[in-house]
Each structure stands twice: as structure tokens, then as C-alpha cells.
Design goal:
Elements: E1 10-12, H1 15-22, H2 32-38, E2 43-46, H3 53-61, E3 65-68, H4 77-88, E4 98-102, H5 109-121, E5 126-130, E6 134-139, E7 145-148, E8 154-161, E9 167-173, E10 182-184, E11 191-195, E12 200-205, E13 209-215
Parallel strand pairs: 1-2, 2-3, 4-5
Antiparallel strand pairs: 5-6, 6-13, 7-12, 8-11, 8-13, 9-10, 9-12
Main location: cytoplasm
Function: Catalyzes the phosphorylation of thiamine to thiamine pyrophosphate (TPP). TPP is an active cofactor for enzymes involved in glycolysis and energy production. Plant leaves require high levels of TPP for photosynthesis and carbohydrate metabolism.
Organism: Spinacia oleracea
Length: 217
């Protein structure tokens, strides 16, 4: 699993419960305690209003650093975690940083919207939100994007969404229905249910866009 090779593993508050409860299900033939010991977070960060006491105690005994930021009610738990990772990463390394966020999609829509907002608040970082069905990332307007498509893992369905403001000029290649200096906005045209046709999708726009692509099961 990628979690074992990650440089830093951070749980957002109640995410510790999900890790504790669900990680043994991936290894049903193994002792749950052994699995939990092997796949443990380095840090648990957030308001600490969701994580169970038994879970917090279990990971604390394994050396996990629990950081209570309940004094900050203006940012989400995910925001707090991303901020922690960003602060620990030297500026010279941030361009190579990739943050994978699981469990950020599905459930309450306001939580989903808050997590997508984190992509915009940390637009200088490469953050990928992963659900059972798709992944989402922000494509900042600052440069042209070349997206490598691993067809054995993702696709073919995809979409490009201008959230927060219209995109007046968007051009793509590598899609079944490419955009050619096309205007997109909520209340108008959106590129949904599009299909990738090759190994590379290029995107250039005058607005930040949300890129989403389906995950194969």
C-alpha cells in the first residue's frame, strides 16, 4: 500500500477512527492489532471532537503525535492537516510534493465543498482528493497542464469544472469532446461526462478548473 511508503501520514481527527476500524479489513487473514501497528499515522490533527478516546489512546501509545487545534474554528480539519504538511515541507521541495487525501468525498455535501475549497486555498500544492469512484484535483490557471492518464487505473469518464468563477477561454486535447477556446460556467456549459482518449490530456484555461476522472474497480 502507498501508505507504507509515504513520507508523512496524517489523520484528520475522526479519520483516525476510520483507519483503526477499516484497515484490518484489507488483511482479513492477519491479526488486526498487527495490521494497526503496521499502518499507523504519524500525526492526528484537528478539533479532536470526532476521534474516539480508545483510538486516540491506541495511536498515542504507538508514538503518534496528537495535535488539538479546537481553538481554530475558522478552518476545517483537512485544512489544518494540509497546513501542517505544508509547514513541514521546505519551499524548494513543494513543487515535487503530492498529497493524497482519502475519505474527503461522499457524505455531507458541505463537507465535500469545504474539502474542495482546500484545493483552492492551497493552490500552490498538488493535492488529490480520492473517493471510491473518482479523484479530484485543482488545475490552476497559472500554467498549461499535461495530465498523464494511467488507463489501467483511471478513466475513461472525466470532467472539467470552473468553480467560483467562469472560465472564458479553455482549450484541451486528449478528450473525446475537446474544448477549443470554449467558455464554461455554472448556468451555462460544463464539461461533464467527457471521455479521455489517450495517455495524455492537456488543459489550458484562463480560470482555475477542477479536474475529475473516474477510478476503475
Amino acid at each position: 500500500m502507498g501508505a507504507r511508503t509515504a513520507k508523512l501520514r496524517v489523520c484528520a481527527d475522526g479519520g483516525g477512527n476510520r483507519l483503526f476500524d477499516e484497515i484490518p479489513q484489507f488483511f482479513p487473514e492477519q491479526n488486526p492489532i498487527d495490521v494497526r501497528n503496521r499502518y499507523k499515522p504519524d500525526v492526528i490533527k484537528g478539533d479532536m471532537d470526532s476521534i474516539r478516546e480508545d483510538v486516540l489512546d491506541f495511536y498515542a501509545k504507538l508514538g503518534c503525535d496528537a495535535i488539538n487545534e479546537s481553538h481554530d474554528q475558522d478552518t476545517t480539519d483537512l485544512h489544518k492537516c494540509i497546513s501542517h504538511i505544508s509547514n513541514l515541507t521546505p519551499e524548494s521541495e513543494k513543487s515535487n510534493l503530492c498529497i493524497l487525501v482519502t475519505g474527503a468525498l461522499g457524505g455531507r455535501f458541505d463537507h465535500e465543498a469545504g474539502n474542495i475549497n482546500v484545493l483552492y486555498r492551497f493552490s500552490n500544492l498538488r493535492i488529490i482528493l480520492i473517493s471510491d469512484d473518482c479523484l479530484i484535483q485543482l488545475l490552476p490557471k497559472t500554467h498549461r497542464h499535461e495530465i498523464q492518464i494511467q488507463s489501467s487505473v483511471v478513466g475513461p469518464h472525466c470532467g472539467l469544472l470552473p468553480m467560483g468563477q467562469p472560465a472564458f477561454h479553455t482549450t484541451t486535447s486528449g478528450l473525446k469532446w475537446n474544448l477549443d477556446d470554449t467558455e464554461m460556467m455554472f448556468g451555462g456549459l460544463l464539461s461533464t461526462s467527457n471521455i479521455v482518449t489517450g495517455d495524455i490530456v492537456s488543459v489550458q484555461s484562463d480560470a482555475d478548473l477542477i479536474w475529475t476522472i473516474s477510478i476503475k474497480h
